[in-house]
Amino acid sequence: MPTRPSVLNVLFDYIEENKNKFINKLKIAVSIPSVSCDQAHRKDVIKMMTWMMDQLTALNVTAELHDIGLQEFSNGTTLKLPPVILGSLGNDHEKPTVCVYGHLDVQPAALSDGWNTDPFELVIKDGKMYGRGSTDDKGPAISWLHVVEAFKNTNSELPVNLKFCFEGMEESGSEGLDKLLISRKDTFFKDVDYVCISDNYWLGTSKPCITYGLRGLCYFFVEVTCASKDLHSGIYGGTINEAMSDLIALLNTLLDKDGEILIPGIMEDVEIISPEEQKMYSNIDFDIDAYKNELGSPQLLHDKKEDLLMARWRYPSLSIHGIEGGFSEPGSKTVIPRKVIGKFSIRLVPYQKPDKVENIVRDHLIKQWKLRGSSNSLKITMNGSSPAWKSNPLHPHYTAAAKAIKYVYKTDPDLTREGGSIPVAITFQDIIEKNVLLLPMGSCDDGAHSQNEKLNINNYIEGTKMMTAYLYEVGLLGKNNH
Fold this sequence. Notes:
This protein is of the alpha+beta class and 482 residues long. It has helices at residues 6-17, 19-31, 42-58, 134-153, 177-183, 233-236, 243-251, 275-283, 288-295, 305-313, 354-372, 396-409, 423-432, 457-477, and strands at 62-66, 70-72, 78-80, 84-89, 97-103, 123-125, 128-130, 161-167, 194-197, 209-214, 216-225, 231-232, 317-324, 335-336, 339-348, 377-386, 389-390, 414-418, 435-438, 454-456.
Protein backbone atom coordinates (compact mmCIF):
# COMPACT_ATOMS: atom_id res chain seq x y z
CA MET A 1 0.00 0.00 0.00
CA PRO A 2 1.54 3.36 -1.01
CA THR A 3 2.29 5.82 1.78
CA ARG A 4 -0.11 8.70 1.55
CA PRO A 5 1.61 12.07 1.03
CA SER A 6 1.21 14.52 3.92
CA VAL A 7 -0.55 17.10 1.75
CA LEU A 8 -3.31 14.58 1.04
CA ASN A 9 -3.73 13.94 4.76
CA VAL A 10 -4.33 17.67 5.24
CA LEU A 11 -6.80 17.79 2.35
CA PHE A 12 -8.63 14.65 3.46
CA ASP A 13 -8.97 16.01 6.99
CA TYR A 14 -10.53 19.20 5.58
CA ILE A 15 -13.02 17.20 3.51
CA GLU A 16 -13.96 15.10 6.53
CA GLU A 17 -14.38 18.15 8.75
CA ASN A 18 -16.64 19.82 6.17
CA LYS A 19 -18.77 16.78 5.41
CA ASN A 20 -22.02 18.36 6.63
CA LYS A 21 -21.33 21.53 4.67
CA PHE A 22 -20.85 19.52 1.48
CA ILE A 23 -24.03 17.53 2.11
CA ASN A 24 -25.95 20.77 2.57
CA LYS A 25 -24.58 22.01 -0.74
CA LEU A 26 -25.93 18.89 -2.44
CA LYS A 27 -29.29 19.53 -0.75
CA ILE A 28 -29.46 22.90 -2.49
CA ALA A 29 -28.50 21.41 -5.85
CA VAL A 30 -31.08 18.60 -5.60
CA SER A 31 -33.82 21.08 -4.63
CA ILE A 32 -33.62 22.70 -8.07
CA PRO A 33 -35.79 20.54 -10.40
CA SER A 34 -33.53 20.89 -13.44
CA VAL A 35 -35.45 18.46 -15.67
CA SER A 36 -34.09 19.17 -19.14
CA CYS A 37 -36.70 17.23 -21.14
CA ASP A 38 -39.62 19.18 -19.66
CA GLN A 39 -40.19 22.59 -21.24
CA ALA A 40 -41.91 23.77 -18.06
CA HIS A 41 -38.67 23.20 -16.13
CA ARG A 42 -36.33 24.95 -18.56
CA LYS A 43 -36.16 27.96 -16.22
CA ASP A 44 -35.04 25.58 -13.44
CA VAL A 45 -32.25 24.15 -15.58
CA ILE A 46 -31.05 27.69 -16.28
CA LYS A 47 -31.31 28.45 -12.54
CA MET A 48 -29.18 25.36 -11.85
CA MET A 49 -26.51 26.47 -14.29
CA THR A 50 -26.48 29.98 -12.79
CA TRP A 51 -26.16 28.52 -9.28
CA MET A 52 -23.16 26.44 -10.36
CA MET A 53 -21.63 29.47 -12.04
CA ASP A 54 -21.88 31.40 -8.76
CA GLN A 55 -20.21 28.56 -6.85
CA LEU A 56 -17.28 28.49 -9.26
CA THR A 57 -16.86 32.25 -9.21
CA ALA A 58 -16.75 32.19 -5.40
CA LEU A 59 -13.76 29.84 -5.68
CA ASN A 60 -11.90 32.26 -7.99
CA VAL A 61 -12.62 30.18 -11.08
CA THR A 62 -12.74 32.28 -14.25
CA ALA A 63 -15.98 31.06 -15.79
CA GLU A 64 -18.58 32.05 -18.35
CA LEU A 65 -22.12 30.99 -19.20
CA HIS A 66 -22.08 30.27 -22.92
CA ASP A 67 -25.24 30.70 -24.98
CA ILE A 68 -25.70 27.66 -27.23
CA GLY A 69 -28.81 28.80 -29.07
CA LEU A 70 -32.39 27.58 -29.33
CA GLN A 71 -34.06 24.20 -29.14
CA GLU A 72 -36.69 23.61 -31.82
CA PHE A 73 -39.64 21.31 -31.15
CA SER A 74 -41.78 19.28 -33.55
CA ASN A 75 -44.70 21.71 -33.22
CA GLY A 76 -42.51 24.56 -34.49
CA THR A 77 -41.98 26.26 -31.14
CA THR A 78 -38.51 27.12 -29.86
CA LEU A 79 -37.00 27.41 -26.41
CA LYS A 80 -33.68 28.79 -25.25
CA LEU A 81 -31.17 26.05 -24.48
CA PRO A 82 -29.55 26.16 -21.04
CA PRO A 83 -26.10 27.80 -21.17
CA VAL A 84 -22.93 25.73 -20.87
CA ILE A 85 -20.35 26.64 -18.25
CA LEU A 86 -16.73 26.78 -19.33
CA GLY A 87 -14.33 27.71 -16.54
CA SER A 88 -10.58 27.84 -15.88
CA LEU A 89 -8.46 27.81 -12.75
CA GLY A 90 -4.70 28.16 -13.03
CA ASN A 91 -2.42 28.93 -15.96
CA ASP A 92 0.93 27.47 -14.97
CA HIS A 93 2.65 26.20 -18.12
CA GLU A 94 4.75 23.82 -16.03
CA LYS A 95 1.67 21.97 -14.80
CA PRO A 96 -0.59 19.62 -16.74
CA THR A 97 -4.14 20.78 -17.47
CA VAL A 98 -7.11 18.59 -16.56
CA CYS A 99 -10.58 19.14 -17.99
CA VAL A 100 -13.43 17.87 -15.79
CA TYR A 101 -16.95 17.41 -17.13
CA GLY A 102 -20.30 17.01 -15.43
CA HIS A 103 -23.98 17.64 -16.10
CA LEU A 104 -26.50 19.38 -13.88
CA ASP A 105 -29.78 18.38 -15.50
CA VAL A 106 -31.82 15.41 -14.34
CA GLN A 107 -34.49 12.95 -15.39
CA PRO A 108 -38.15 13.61 -14.50
CA ALA A 109 -39.30 12.47 -11.07
CA ALA A 110 -42.47 12.68 -8.98
CA LEU A 111 -43.91 11.11 -5.84
CA SER A 112 -46.58 9.53 -8.03
CA ASP A 113 -43.87 7.59 -9.88
CA GLY A 114 -43.28 5.51 -6.76
CA TRP A 115 -40.79 7.60 -4.83
CA ASN A 116 -40.87 7.17 -1.05
CA THR A 117 -39.95 10.84 -0.52
CA ASP A 118 -40.08 14.11 -2.44
CA PRO A 119 -37.52 13.54 -5.24
CA PHE A 120 -36.41 17.18 -5.13
CA GLU A 121 -35.69 17.21 -1.41
CA LEU A 122 -32.50 15.45 -0.32
CA VAL A 123 -33.55 12.98 2.37
CA ILE A 124 -30.91 11.20 4.44
CA LYS A 125 -31.62 7.74 5.84
CA ASP A 126 -29.23 4.98 6.92
CA GLY A 127 -26.22 6.72 5.40
CA LYS A 128 -27.92 7.21 2.03
CA MET A 129 -28.91 10.52 0.43
CA TYR A 130 -32.12 10.13 -1.59
CA GLY A 131 -32.99 12.66 -4.27
CA ARG A 132 -33.15 13.08 -8.04
CA GLY A 133 -29.71 13.90 -9.37
CA SER A 134 -27.91 12.88 -6.17
CA THR A 135 -25.76 10.38 -8.04
CA ASP A 136 -26.55 11.35 -11.65
CA ASP A 137 -24.81 13.73 -11.83
CA LYS A 138 -25.13 16.54 -9.29
CA GLY A 139 -23.25 14.79 -6.48
CA PRO A 140 -20.17 13.99 -8.57
CA ALA A 141 -20.30 17.33 -10.43
CA ILE A 142 -20.38 19.56 -7.36
CA SER A 143 -17.72 17.45 -5.67
CA TRP A 144 -15.22 19.21 -7.92
CA LEU A 145 -16.24 22.38 -6.05
CA HIS A 146 -15.34 20.70 -2.76
CA VAL A 147 -11.98 19.59 -4.15
CA VAL A 148 -11.07 23.14 -5.20
CA GLU A 149 -12.28 24.50 -1.87
CA ALA A 150 -10.12 21.99 0.02
CA PHE A 151 -6.98 23.07 -1.83
CA LYS A 152 -7.87 26.76 -1.44
CA ASN A 153 -8.80 26.73 2.25
CA THR A 154 -5.82 24.60 3.36
CA ASN A 155 -3.40 26.81 1.41
CA SER A 156 -2.32 23.74 -0.57
CA GLU A 157 -1.01 24.36 -4.05
CA LEU A 158 -3.30 23.08 -6.78
CA PRO A 159 -1.10 20.56 -8.62
CA VAL A 160 -2.76 21.03 -12.03
CA ASN A 161 -4.50 23.67 -14.10
CA LEU A 162 -8.23 22.97 -14.21
CA LYS A 163 -10.77 23.41 -16.97
CA PHE A 164 -14.45 22.94 -16.13
CA CYS A 165 -17.22 21.99 -18.55
CA PHE A 166 -20.72 21.71 -17.08
CA GLU A 167 -23.88 21.37 -19.18
CA GLY A 168 -27.63 21.24 -18.58
CA MET A 169 -28.88 19.05 -21.46
CA GLU A 170 -27.11 15.71 -21.04
CA GLU A 171 -30.32 13.87 -20.21
CA SER A 172 -31.79 15.26 -23.44
CA GLY A 173 -28.99 14.35 -25.81
CA SER A 174 -26.55 17.17 -24.95
CA GLU A 175 -28.18 19.31 -27.62
CA GLY A 176 -25.93 22.19 -28.62
CA LEU A 177 -22.89 20.99 -26.68
CA ASP A 178 -20.82 19.42 -29.46
CA LYS A 179 -21.00 22.55 -31.58
CA LEU A 180 -19.67 24.65 -28.69
CA LEU A 181 -16.88 22.22 -27.83
CA ILE A 182 -15.72 21.98 -31.44
CA SER A 183 -15.74 25.77 -31.78
CA ARG A 184 -13.45 26.04 -28.73
CA LYS A 185 -11.08 23.28 -29.82
CA ASP A 186 -8.18 25.64 -30.60
CA THR A 187 -8.85 28.12 -27.81
CA PHE A 188 -10.37 26.97 -24.52
CA PHE A 189 -9.37 23.31 -24.93
CA LYS A 190 -6.03 23.93 -26.64
CA ASP A 191 -3.83 23.19 -23.61
CA VAL A 192 -5.84 20.33 -22.08
CA ASP A 193 -3.71 17.26 -21.33
CA TYR A 194 -6.24 14.94 -19.66
CA VAL A 195 -10.03 14.64 -19.43
CA CYS A 196 -11.92 13.24 -16.44
CA ILE A 197 -15.66 12.46 -16.44
CA SER A 198 -17.51 11.36 -13.30
CA ASP A 199 -20.89 10.32 -14.67
CA ASN A 200 -21.06 6.57 -14.11
CA TYR A 201 -20.97 4.00 -11.33
CA TRP A 202 -19.02 1.21 -9.71
CA LEU A 203 -19.61 -2.29 -11.02
CA GLY A 204 -20.69 -3.38 -7.53
CA THR A 205 -21.31 -1.75 -4.16
CA SER A 206 -17.96 -2.10 -2.42
CA LYS A 207 -15.07 -1.85 -4.89
CA PRO A 208 -14.15 1.26 -6.90
CA CYS A 209 -13.37 1.13 -10.58
CA ILE A 210 -12.09 3.19 -13.49
CA THR A 211 -14.01 2.98 -16.76
CA TYR A 212 -12.19 2.93 -20.10
CA GLY A 213 -14.94 2.02 -22.55
CA LEU A 214 -18.60 2.68 -23.35
CA ARG A 215 -20.90 1.18 -25.92
CA GLY A 216 -22.46 3.38 -28.57
CA LEU A 217 -26.04 3.36 -29.80
CA CYS A 218 -28.21 3.23 -32.91
CA TYR A 219 -31.95 3.72 -32.29
CA PHE A 220 -34.46 2.60 -34.91
CA PHE A 221 -38.13 3.20 -35.70
CA VAL A 222 -39.90 0.66 -37.94
CA GLU A 223 -43.25 1.97 -39.15
CA VAL A 224 -45.91 -0.16 -40.85
CA THR A 225 -49.14 1.37 -42.22
CA CYS A 226 -52.13 -0.64 -43.42
CA ALA A 227 -55.03 1.82 -43.67
CA SER A 228 -55.99 5.48 -43.52
CA LYS A 229 -57.74 5.10 -40.15
CA ASP A 230 -58.09 2.66 -37.27
CA LEU A 231 -60.51 -0.16 -38.04
CA HIS A 232 -63.00 -2.39 -36.16
CA SER A 233 -61.75 -5.99 -36.18
CA GLY A 234 -65.31 -7.37 -36.28
CA ILE A 235 -66.05 -5.52 -39.50
CA TYR A 236 -62.67 -5.45 -41.22
CA GLY A 237 -60.74 -8.34 -39.66
CA GLY A 238 -59.71 -10.90 -42.25
CA THR A 239 -59.94 -8.47 -45.14
CA ILE A 240 -56.54 -6.71 -45.02
CA ASN A 241 -52.93 -7.36 -44.08
CA GLU A 242 -52.79 -5.97 -40.55
CA ALA A 243 -49.91 -3.64 -39.67
CA MET A 244 -49.37 -5.08 -36.19
CA SER A 245 -48.90 -8.62 -37.51
CA ASP A 246 -46.38 -7.39 -40.07
CA LEU A 247 -44.46 -5.44 -37.46
CA ILE A 248 -44.25 -8.30 -34.98
CA ALA A 249 -43.05 -10.60 -37.77
CA LEU A 250 -40.28 -8.11 -38.62
CA LEU A 251 -39.22 -7.61 -35.01
CA ASN A 252 -39.04 -11.36 -34.59
CA THR A 253 -36.28 -11.54 -37.22
CA LEU A 254 -33.92 -9.36 -35.16
CA LEU A 255 -33.03 -11.51 -32.15
CA ASP A 256 -33.21 -15.11 -31.00
CA LYS A 257 -34.13 -16.37 -27.52
CA ASP A 258 -30.45 -16.55 -26.49
CA GLY A 259 -29.82 -12.88 -27.24
CA GLU A 260 -27.97 -13.46 -30.50
CA ILE A 261 -28.54 -10.73 -33.07
CA LEU A 262 -29.84 -12.31 -36.28
CA ILE A 263 -28.92 -9.46 -38.63
CA PRO A 264 -26.26 -10.68 -41.11
CA GLY A 265 -22.96 -8.78 -40.96
CA ILE A 266 -23.62 -7.11 -37.62
CA MET A 267 -20.58 -8.72 -35.96
CA GLU A 268 -18.01 -8.28 -38.72
CA ASP A 269 -16.44 -5.07 -37.34
CA VAL A 270 -16.41 -6.08 -33.66
CA GLU A 271 -12.94 -5.83 -32.15
CA ILE A 272 -11.28 -9.20 -31.55
CA ILE A 273 -10.43 -9.76 -27.90
CA SER A 274 -6.74 -9.89 -27.01
CA PRO A 275 -5.18 -12.16 -24.36
CA GLU A 276 -4.39 -9.04 -22.29
CA GLU A 277 -8.01 -7.92 -22.30
CA GLN A 278 -9.22 -11.44 -21.57
CA LYS A 279 -7.05 -11.45 -18.46
CA MET A 280 -8.53 -8.14 -17.31
CA TYR A 281 -12.01 -9.68 -17.27
CA SER A 282 -10.79 -12.61 -15.19
CA ASN A 283 -9.45 -10.25 -12.53
CA ILE A 284 -12.63 -8.17 -12.13
CA ASP A 285 -14.50 -8.53 -8.86
CA PHE A 286 -18.07 -9.38 -9.88
CA ASP A 287 -20.70 -11.52 -8.13
CA ILE A 288 -22.85 -13.06 -10.83
CA ASP A 289 -25.40 -14.43 -8.34
CA ALA A 290 -25.84 -11.03 -6.69
CA TYR A 291 -26.32 -9.51 -10.15
CA LYS A 292 -28.99 -12.08 -10.97
CA ASN A 293 -30.78 -11.47 -7.67
CA GLU A 294 -30.67 -7.70 -8.18
CA LEU A 295 -32.41 -8.10 -11.54
CA GLY A 296 -34.98 -10.53 -10.15
CA SER A 297 -34.51 -12.63 -13.27
CA PRO A 298 -34.95 -16.43 -13.25
CA GLN A 299 -32.09 -16.98 -15.68
CA LEU A 300 -29.19 -15.03 -17.20
CA LEU A 301 -27.98 -15.59 -20.74
CA HIS A 302 -24.47 -16.45 -19.52
CA ASP A 303 -23.29 -18.52 -16.55
CA LYS A 304 -19.65 -17.40 -16.43
CA LYS A 305 -18.62 -14.01 -15.07
CA GLU A 306 -16.33 -13.28 -18.02
CA ASP A 307 -18.97 -14.15 -20.62
CA LEU A 308 -21.61 -12.05 -18.88
CA LEU A 309 -19.38 -8.98 -18.58
CA MET A 310 -18.30 -9.24 -22.21
CA ALA A 311 -21.92 -9.51 -23.31
CA ARG A 312 -22.68 -6.39 -21.29
CA TRP A 313 -19.65 -4.33 -22.35
CA ARG A 314 -17.71 -5.44 -25.40
CA TYR A 315 -20.25 -7.11 -27.68
CA PRO A 316 -23.23 -5.46 -29.37
CA SER A 317 -26.71 -6.11 -28.04
CA LEU A 318 -30.16 -5.49 -29.47
CA SER A 319 -33.17 -4.49 -27.37
CA ILE A 320 -36.79 -4.10 -28.50
CA HIS A 321 -38.25 -1.22 -26.51
CA GLY A 322 -41.91 -1.04 -27.46
CA ILE A 323 -44.62 -0.44 -30.00
CA GLU A 324 -46.36 2.87 -30.62
CA GLY A 325 -49.89 2.66 -31.94
CA GLY A 326 -52.75 0.27 -31.38
CA PHE A 327 -54.29 -0.38 -27.96
CA SER A 328 -52.19 -0.78 -24.83
CA GLU A 329 -54.51 0.34 -22.00
CA PRO A 330 -56.08 -2.11 -19.50
CA GLY A 331 -59.17 -3.93 -20.71
CA SER A 332 -60.30 -4.92 -24.20
CA LYS A 333 -60.63 -2.97 -27.39
CA THR A 334 -61.16 -4.57 -30.79
CA VAL A 335 -59.14 -2.11 -32.83
CA ILE A 336 -56.96 -2.77 -35.86
CA PRO A 337 -54.42 0.09 -35.73
CA ARG A 338 -53.89 1.87 -39.02
CA LYS A 339 -50.21 2.45 -38.21
CA VAL A 340 -47.77 0.96 -35.72
CA ILE A 341 -44.16 1.90 -34.94
CA GLY A 342 -41.74 -0.61 -33.47
CA LYS A 343 -38.79 0.80 -31.55
CA PHE A 344 -35.49 -0.98 -31.02
CA SER A 345 -31.85 -0.10 -30.47
CA ILE A 346 -28.47 -1.69 -30.97
CA ARG A 347 -25.62 -0.97 -28.57
CA LEU A 348 -22.44 -0.56 -30.61
CA VAL A 349 -18.88 -1.52 -29.72
CA PRO A 350 -15.46 -0.77 -31.24
CA TYR A 351 -15.09 -0.72 -34.27
CA GLN A 352 -18.67 -0.61 -35.44
CA LYS A 353 -19.73 2.57 -37.25
CA PRO A 354 -23.31 3.90 -36.93
CA ASP A 355 -23.66 4.59 -40.68
CA LYS A 356 -22.66 1.05 -41.59
CA VAL A 357 -24.89 -0.46 -38.91
CA GLU A 358 -27.81 1.59 -40.23
CA ASN A 359 -27.27 0.21 -43.74
CA ILE A 360 -26.96 -3.36 -42.47
CA VAL A 361 -30.16 -3.07 -40.43
CA ARG A 362 -32.06 -1.40 -43.27
CA ASP A 363 -30.96 -4.08 -45.79
CA HIS A 364 -32.02 -6.84 -43.40
CA LEU A 365 -35.47 -5.38 -42.73
CA ILE A 366 -36.14 -4.67 -46.41
CA LYS A 367 -35.16 -8.24 -47.29
CA GLN A 368 -37.47 -9.65 -44.60
CA TRP A 369 -40.26 -7.35 -45.75
CA LYS A 370 -39.99 -8.62 -49.32
CA LEU A 371 -40.04 -12.21 -48.07
CA ARG A 372 -43.21 -11.50 -46.13
CA GLY A 373 -44.89 -10.12 -49.22
CA SER A 374 -47.21 -7.72 -47.43
CA SER A 375 -49.18 -5.09 -49.33
CA ASN A 376 -48.67 -2.56 -46.52
CA SER A 377 -46.15 0.29 -46.50
CA LEU A 378 -42.87 0.17 -44.57
CA LYS A 379 -40.75 3.06 -43.30
CA ILE A 380 -37.40 2.60 -41.51
CA THR A 381 -35.77 5.47 -39.63
CA MET A 382 -32.61 5.65 -37.55
CA ASN A 383 -33.58 8.12 -34.84
CA GLY A 384 -30.19 9.04 -33.42
CA SER A 385 -26.83 7.37 -33.00
CA SER A 386 -23.47 7.64 -31.29
CA PRO A 387 -20.31 5.56 -31.76
CA ALA A 388 -18.67 3.46 -29.07
CA TRP A 389 -15.84 4.95 -27.00
CA LYS A 390 -12.71 3.22 -25.79
CA SER A 391 -9.58 4.62 -24.18
CA ASN A 392 -6.22 3.08 -23.28
CA PRO A 393 -6.43 1.71 -19.72
CA LEU A 394 -2.64 1.21 -19.61
CA HIS A 395 -2.00 4.93 -20.09
CA PRO A 396 -0.16 6.77 -17.24
CA HIS A 397 -3.36 8.76 -16.71
CA TYR A 398 -5.12 5.55 -15.62
CA THR A 399 -2.14 4.53 -13.49
CA ALA A 400 -2.33 7.87 -11.70
CA ALA A 401 -6.06 7.49 -11.07
CA ALA A 402 -5.56 3.95 -9.79
CA LYS A 403 -2.93 5.14 -7.31
CA ALA A 404 -5.27 7.90 -6.14
CA ILE A 405 -8.01 5.34 -5.52
CA LYS A 406 -5.59 3.20 -3.54
CA TYR A 407 -4.83 6.14 -1.21
CA VAL A 408 -8.52 6.35 -0.34
CA TYR A 409 -9.94 2.85 -0.62
CA LYS A 410 -6.77 0.82 0.05
CA THR A 411 -7.38 -1.46 -2.92
CA ASP A 412 -6.60 -1.56 -6.62
CA PRO A 413 -9.64 -0.52 -8.70
CA ASP A 414 -11.20 -2.73 -11.32
CA LEU A 415 -10.72 -1.55 -14.90
CA THR A 416 -14.15 -1.73 -16.45
CA ARG A 417 -16.14 -0.91 -19.51
CA GLU A 418 -19.83 -0.03 -19.46
CA GLY A 419 -22.80 -0.93 -21.59
CA GLY A 420 -24.36 2.53 -21.66
CA SER A 421 -23.41 5.55 -23.74
CA ILE A 422 -21.94 8.93 -22.78
CA PRO A 423 -21.44 10.63 -26.18
CA VAL A 424 -19.46 13.54 -24.72
CA ALA A 425 -16.60 11.12 -23.95
CA ILE A 426 -16.20 10.51 -27.67
CA THR A 427 -16.44 14.21 -28.43
CA PHE A 428 -13.71 15.06 -25.95
CA GLN A 429 -11.45 12.32 -27.25
CA ASP A 430 -11.98 13.47 -30.84
CA ILE A 431 -11.49 17.21 -30.36
CA ILE A 432 -8.83 17.20 -27.64
CA GLU A 433 -7.07 14.04 -28.83
CA LYS A 434 -5.83 13.29 -25.32
CA ASN A 435 -6.52 10.48 -22.87
CA VAL A 436 -10.02 10.39 -21.37
CA LEU A 437 -11.10 8.41 -18.32
CA LEU A 438 -14.30 7.91 -16.35
CA LEU A 439 -13.87 8.11 -12.58
CA PRO A 440 -17.07 6.85 -10.93
CA MET A 441 -18.25 8.03 -7.52
CA GLY A 442 -21.55 6.20 -7.03
CA SER A 443 -22.25 2.49 -6.68
CA CYS A 444 -24.25 0.16 -8.91
CA ASP A 445 -27.35 0.22 -6.69
CA ASP A 446 -27.80 4.02 -6.72
CA GLY A 447 -30.81 3.81 -9.03
CA ALA A 448 -29.96 6.60 -11.46
CA HIS A 449 -33.01 7.40 -13.65
CA SER A 450 -35.12 5.29 -11.29
CA GLN A 451 -37.33 5.82 -8.29
CA ASN A 452 -35.55 6.59 -5.00
CA GLU A 453 -32.25 7.52 -6.65
CA LYS A 454 -29.58 7.85 -3.96
CA LEU A 455 -25.92 8.46 -3.28
CA ASN A 456 -24.26 6.96 -0.22
CA ILE A 457 -22.71 9.57 2.07
CA ASN A 458 -19.57 7.44 2.18
CA ASN A 459 -19.33 7.40 -1.63
CA TYR A 460 -19.83 11.17 -1.71
CA ILE A 461 -17.19 12.05 0.88
CA GLU A 462 -14.64 9.34 0.04
CA GLY A 463 -15.25 10.05 -3.65
CA THR A 464 -14.37 13.71 -3.06
CA LYS A 465 -11.12 12.55 -1.45
CA MET A 466 -10.53 10.31 -4.47
CA MET A 467 -10.93 13.26 -6.85
CA THR A 468 -8.50 15.28 -4.72
CA ALA A 469 -5.91 12.50 -4.80
CA TYR A 470 -6.50 12.09 -8.54
CA LEU A 471 -5.50 15.71 -9.19
CA TYR A 472 -2.44 15.25 -6.97
CA GLU A 473 -1.29 12.17 -8.88
CA VAL A 474 -2.00 13.67 -12.31
CA GLY A 475 0.05 16.68 -11.24
CA LEU A 476 3.02 14.36 -10.80
CA LEU A 477 2.70 13.21 -14.40
CA GLY A 478 3.66 16.66 -15.64
CA LYS A 479 3.17 17.81 -19.21
CA ASN A 480 4.83 14.98 -21.06
CA ASN A 481 2.69 11.87 -20.50
CA HIS A 482 -0.49 12.81 -22.28
